[in-house]
């Protein structure tokens, strides 16, 4: 018998039409979950008092989620987090880092159409999430969506128009849900060590999407003038950027002041590979850390996790480049 805790935070899945558009409907989703009852599994449902459209998620919401999961950790076999799709990959990534030495499944899910819609994808997503949350060997935060189980810190929302809302472009799915569930256990991580929750703390993390033209210089000037604790720069291809003096000077000055500048690629597939092109070298020499094939969602979560621990800057930089939760490919 598996005993699950289902935390319902909001999202389209439990929404109903209102004059202003779709909005969360308190009480509706927990009642609907009864339709998925079956032998061998029971659950408690906690509906959050403020059901949100996930575009409004805040650090405080993540802190609450981490605290709720940590407080209930010993009492349940698995966890399902019901969440809006817009920031689901951000939340799944935050949980993947915050829940250290996780040895139980934590499955995040939601839907593109509300459960009340005749063609809702929510039923399948919920059923698959519950199935995955009953797997004792799954020691991961994962997203169940459109018949796939994806590593949380690898997933991205890739489609706002079809049921195939999520993908993990640089990592194979952890399972595929067909008539039978095909669990790819060879991909699953194993928990080891004592479970511990490291809740994210306020941190000044900023990001910039590099655009051809003056933006590179402006990003550099901004970094030099208003140095955050960490900056995620989305560069081109394999981590390439123009050898713009202001950009490189900004990265150099910010890095010298202890800012962790992370270089990620704008590409959906592939990785920052310093040295693949000469154009990737100047950023690295100026102090930017190559983020390999990490998603921006994972990089944000990883920085929050590392900065929350008061590590020195060298340790944060080293950990950013290292694989901690299966968030980046090691070659
Ligand atoms: N805007 C919604 C949300 O993220 C979208 C969804 O749930 O599909 O809460």
Written overview of the protein:
- The chain is α/β, with parallel strands linked by helices and 331 residues long.
- The chain is 28% helix and 24% strand.
- It is built from nine helices and 18 strands.
- The model has no long low-confidence stretch (mean pLDDT 96).
- Bound molecules: aspartic acid.
- The site of aspartic acid (ASP) has 11 residues, from loops.
- Aspartic acid binds next to loops.
Compounds present?
Answer: aspartic acid
Instruction: Count up the helices.
Output: 9
Total count of strands: 18
Q: What is the CA–CA distance across the termini?
A: 40 Å
Report strand %: 15-25%
What portion of residues is helical?
25-40%
Strand arrangement within the widest β-sheet reads 4-1-5-7-8-9-12-13
Main beta sheet: 8 strands, mixed
If you compute it from the alpha carbons, what radius of gyration comes out, rounded to the nearest whole angstrom? 20 Å
Category from helices, strands and their pairing: alpha/beta
Mean pLDDT: 96
Helix/strand order: EEEHEHEHEEHEEEEEEEEHEHEHEHH
Uncertain spans: none
Overall 3D form: globular
